[in-house]
Write a structure and sequence with these properties.
Helix content is about 20%, strand content about 25%. The chain contains six helices and ten strands, in the order βαββαββββαβββααα. It has a five-stranded mixed β-sheet, sandwiched between helices. Strands 6-5-10 form a three-stranded antiparallel β-sheet. The chain has a two-stranded antiparallel ribbon with strand order 2-3. The chain is globular, with a radius of gyration of 17 Å. Belongs to the IPP isomerase type 1 family. Keywords: Isomerase, Isoprene biosynthesis. One of its GO terms (molecular function) is isopentenyl-diphosphate delta-isomerase activity. It comes from Ciona intestinalis.
Length: about 240
Amino acid sequence: MLNTTCIANLSKFVVSHLKNPFSTSGRMADSVDLNTYDTSQVKLMKEECIEVDSDDNVIGPRSKLDCHLLSNGPPLHRAFSLFLFNSKNELLMQKRANAKITFPGYYTNTCCSHPLHNATELEEKESYGVRHAAQRRLKDELGVPINQLPICDISFITRIHYKASCSDKWGEHEIDHVLFARKDVDLNVNPNEVSEVRYVSKDGMKDFTKKCENAGVPLTPWFKLILHSHLFKWWDNI
């Protein structure tokens, strides 16, 4: 697993205002017509995310819908980004399904989502809550059996704080917990969540992202931030 002694301690979150930054206005969410979106994805908008302050202290529950509407700020909330490598040290990448409400059709790292406001996923000791959320969502999105990636095999690396929009309605404002794991797993992809997967080597990542760019396939802003800051250094120490 990653040798964290070889990595600089990121005592402060990396804050990035990527393309199309937006201000947090504090306004209540404007009404939005969800009838044009995928029904399964709309149901997920009722989930309760974890609103946090700038130091990642829990404020309380906030619906996924509230957390992603630009007209609502959106409020800062907790998230995770899992980077899963196989025994060849290749990174599993996914292309988000076009049915997704936020960042549809974007390529990103293995699994990216939110811990929920419940007793299990609020647990902060040894980052248990976000690691449990990663295990849950990896099964939901990519069909990885829970017993193939035990929580003890998921390592917390650091946190990043970023904002980014994906349209004139939707965006993210997150403290994102970065998680690493190295395991060979079986995949049973959920097409409502993921349209494509592939393993990418460290040496092949720059070529892969260039091909995405040339084909007009965007990368998610949180993945781009990690890619251009620390990913290759961490990759060297797996």
